[in-house]
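Data card: per-record layout.
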Amino acid sequence: MLDVVKARPTDGKQERPAWGEKSAAKQSLEPMRVMLGAQPFFAGDTPNYADYIVFGCFQWSRCISEFQLLTADDPVAAWRARLLAAFDGLARDAPGYAV
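The structure for this 99-residue chain is written out next.
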């Protein structure tokens, strides 16, 4: 089960839920963070099959849920942004929530 932290609204607005700092789901992305902190894509300088397969999971999540999976300073978020911009922004233009 995900360790979800829901912020309590202080001004009448519900904040977007995010993963708790020590959640197993968040920790499971650590190998990706290490690799993507050293190179732009799994294969190095350009994306390959592995990037597209893993990106598909993030894209599916972006399209169906406003749940914030990544923080702006996460290397995985930078990788996702590069793939969202690939092919003239094809993935970014798909209907979905802001990332």
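Known properties of this structure: The chain has one domain: 29-99. The radius of gyration is 14 Å.

See the next section for split statistics.
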